[in-house]
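ping. complex inputs:
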Amino acid sequence: MEFTPIDKLNLDERIIKILKKKGIEKLNPVQTDAVNSGLLEGKRLLVTSPTGSGKTLIAELGIISHLLSDGGKAVYITPLKALTAEKYNELKDWEELGFKVGMTSGDYDSDDAWLKNYDIIVSTYEKIDSLWRHNPSWLSEVDYFVLDEFHYLNDEERGPVVESVAIRAKRKNLLALSATISNYEKIANWLNAIPVTTNWRPVPLREGVIVEGKKSYQVIFPNETIEIKGNDPIIAYTLYVLEHGGQVLVFRNSRKMAESTAKKISSSMGLLSLPDKELLKVGEEIKNVEDAGSDEKEELYELVVRGVAFHHAGLSKGLREIIERAFRERKIKVIVATPTLAAGVNLPARAVIIGDFHRYNRKILGYQEEISIMEYKQMAGRAGRPGFDKEGEAVIVVRNKKEAEKVFKKYILSPPEPIESRLGNESAFYSFLLGIISSEKKISEDDLEDYAMDTLLDKDVAEKYVKRGITWLRDNEFIAGDDELVLTKFGKRVADLYINPFTAKVFKDYLTKSDKSCNIAYLHLVAYTPDGPTVSVTRSELEELVDEAPCPLFIEEPEDEDEFYNYVSALKVAMIINDWIEEVDEDVILSRYGIGSGDLRSIIDTMDWLTYSGYNVAKVLDLKEHYDVLYTLNLRVKDGVKEELLDLVKIQGVGRKRARILYNHGIKKPEDVVMNVDKVKSLLGQKIGEKIAKEAARLIAGNA
DNA sequence: GCTTGCAGCCTCTAGACAGCATGTC
DNA sequence: CTAGAGGCTGCAAGC
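pong. complex structure:
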């Protein structure tokens, strides 16, 4: 455990200058280890260490010393868009050396985004995987890959993409960063990298359990037991930490419980929760957020002015950001969250309370599984704010002494489980093959098999999947050719759209054999694909929904119970989106379907992408009868409008609400806006009216 | 006859990635 | 296959 002053390292002067500017005088033990293992000489490393141990700086040093000595380009890959933005901002500091930093992810591209102009590009795994399929020329200039949060390899859904990207990065140079994993030697070996592993944390972490004792609760740490009074372990411990001046992050396993725990805490806080000026300001911000539903704003407001908040993916992005910032600024004292906050941007607290170590598993009815050690470590790792807390505390709530012992042994004393390949299923593996063929343009079966042998799968499993995959892709007309495999036009389109081949097959099979139908039928088909959004359907909705389908659907009602549920869930998505494009008020949609604004947003985004994809698949298959419907549908889904507003929403700054106002007052096209600027101003306000008139003029000029 | 209390049954359950077009010597 | 909270119903005791 040693710290190394940066002057003692063999660092380029320019690097030292910037480090000092960032306020970094010495490297911490993890960073020192990485440097001693050859980081600056371009050695391939797999660094595994706890969250918050300063891995980002390792990546920065790796990238910069690589660019300084070898030129070329570097890519920094993260699993989350939020992390991509965060790393982008940190890497910006290095632009002083003359390197340009850009970023690209699904919803954001660097403003003057032509990526070939950048030296360092920050992105997500999926986006890089997708880019590889298009194979832009600049991508071949990239010879240094940082694979951040590499333990996502173990994630059932996202893992296959991480692995695909790693397989290609392996053929160049890479630096992989991961949370602590137990089989790091095996993974390092696979990556052909040197393992660097430590448990060092900037703020020490104390892990324990909370058990109900005779008259009070006991918080048991390895060498100390604290007695606290109260009726509820979470509330009691939260109050205890608050009284000692710390902030608390509580994790619950459902949104409902996150909300009710937040309420209970706030009503037990007494004098600890007097609203102050700062909190009232945060409250005002919440009231004024534009992207949220009114119910969720109201509920959150009541809590936030008392210094408490709940946080989950049902909340709008704007709302979540306000809460996170206010917590970081130490205004909000307690956040009760679902696992959203376990990964993602750094949001530490003095104490973390893990309220549940079980989680409902939707695949197996009535079965509640224990969360993985890795997940526990991610949550516990949020404890301890550098600079504020001497020590972080993480406690798990258990019911009795027997459970306490078990939990202590499993979560606190054991290393996280090993990570392993998630490519071992048809859907993931066939996508992987499709992606490789797409970027290679043409490839022999032997070479394709070489790629498969590069996966983390056992050789015989990989071999089985290549053989089956090639046959399947050929049978379904994604690929053609004998000596050299190439993508068909259909296959290439599917690869570029980045949809799952099974999604494409659903489009192809049903659209080919069916006649035109109504919007709901198309939306249902789109939602029913494996890439479609999933929503939960309550029992009462289930009966209603089936009767409600207004026209013949493309998919017949499945016999199988699970499939039937998917069928109904897709129908619910279709109804939601149908309301959206019929301009039903957002608050009405939210309460009608029991979803949050964050849910609605993500359903819309996914359906936008998939209606676009459906249109393109229909187009490439020349299914004339269907593609015009899907085309219009996609435009309407994007903005949530009826067809008559499509001209207006093309104007930058005009969404479904403004477009409707304008239209109802006789302004129906961009030209009308330009001709009636005064009227537009009186309808939408001076400032906005003016801006929109300008945009409308620009739009017309652009079209001409 | 109406209210209140409570046992027991029923219902429900986390998160978040991807297309496109974009600019210009 | 290893759950638990909250809502709802219906029955019985209490007034």
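The two ends of chain A are 66 Å apart (CA to CA).
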